[in-house]
Structure formats: C-alpha cells, structure tokens
Amino acid sequence: MKKLNSNKALVVFSGGQDSTTCMFYAMHHYDEVELVTFNYGQRHALEIDIAKQIAEEQGLKHHVLDMSLLSQLSPNALTHHDLQIEGDDIPNTFVPARNLLFMSFAAALAYQINAKHIITGVCETDFSGYPDCRDNFIKALNVTINLSMDLNFEIHTPLMWLDKKETWALADTLGQLDYVRNKTLTCYNGVPADGCGDCPSCKLRNNGLNQYLQEKESGDLK
C-alpha cells in the first residue's frame, strides 16, 4: 500500500490573505510544503503572478494547474469580467463546484507527491454564503477522497472558525502580518495589498485588520 509522508503538506494557494496565512501555518508545522494554484480564468490573472512570486520568495515548489473549464460551466463574477459583483444569499462571485474540484485535484496531486496533509483556507465564519466553504462539506469530502484513493489524507482548515480579525492575529503569531498585508492579493478589483477598499473582499479584510490592530494597540486582545 502506498505510504504518504506525514511531514509533508500541500497548500491550496491563491496568493490571497487566507491561503498565504495557511502557507505560513504549514511551514510552521511541516518539514516539507508545496503549493498548488488553480488557473480557472479568474477575474485577475495577476492573482497567478502574485502566487508565483510568493512561492519563489519562500523557496517553495509551486504547481499551477489549468482549470479553465470552470469558466465554461456557469457565469459568475469571478470568471466573467463583464459581470458586476453583487451580493445576495449566495453572491454571484460563487463559482459552483469550485472547491469540490479544487480539493479533488489537490488530492490527486498530493497522491503524486506523497503529501499526507492538504491545507485550505476555507472559512465558515466569514464564508460569504459560499456553501463549499462549510465545515461539513470539507469533512464529507475528506472521507470521499480517502475512499476514492484508499489512503488516509488529512484535510486541514486552520481558518475554519476564525473571523478576519483572528486570521490577522494568526498571521501575526506566525511573525508574518506585514508580509501577508503587503504581498497578497485579495481584492476583487485586482489591487494588491490593502486593495481598492470598496469591494466586499476588501471591506472584510480591512475591517478585520483594523479591528485587530486597534485591539493589539489597546492591549484588549482576547
């Protein structure tokens, strides 16, 4: 039976705040870390470039997989650039089956590189209505992936129960708050670092950062 390396992790990596924090989390906990980024025709190709740059700066092996078929399956504001970003119960930035496919392909890659641990930055606390960011989905998928390959992968979601303030706190605990703040791209409008300040993603990120910095300065951190 194939044996997975229990000290090796594969991080699903977009170059944004959450996945970069997960990258540093993985580097702190495992001897070997590799990154996988999916090119699915996302709104800003700069996301891929930033992911590559961070991987190079951190000296990590970086896999970029072509998932462009996602943009053919359904119109949404992350893959169809002419659509305005709108929020509802499930916002039009939701890409159906994205995490289902990403995690399945990540597991296939983890199989090839013998990585037991797969790390993703999905979060139920600030999940913006995305059903494929929920804890019960990830747990069910972990079981399914293990059954499909007859192996014992472990999917880790270190941000699952953290809000954005707490995610910034984790980055700071790992000694990487400034790096995550200045090197990542989270903005829906493609503006790196602190972003445009207006899109839903920037508002969530910046509100969390401001809350964390204010509490840290006042000594009120819990």
From TrEMBL:
Its EC number is 6.3.4.20. The lineage of its organism: Bacteria, Bacillati, Bacillota, Bacilli, Bacillales. ATP binds at F13, S14, G15, G16, Q17, D18, S19, T20, T21, C22, M23. This is 7-cyano-7-deazaguanine synthase. It comes from Macrococcus armenti. Catalyzes the ATP-dependent conversion of 7-carboxy-7-deazaguanine (CDG) to 7-cyano-7-deazaguanine (preQ(0)). Binds 1 zinc ion per subunit. Keywords: ATP-binding, Ligase, Metal-binding, Nucleotide-binding, Queuosine biosynthesis, Zinc. InterPro entries: QueC (IPR018317), Rossmann-like_a/b/a_fold (IPR014729). Zn(2+) binds at C187, C196, C199, C202. It comes from the Bacteria. GO terms for molecular function: ligase activity. It catalyses: 7-carboxy-7-carbaguanine + NH4(+) + 2 ATP = 7-cyano-7-carbaguanine + 2 AMP + 2 diphosphate + 2 H(+). Homodimer.
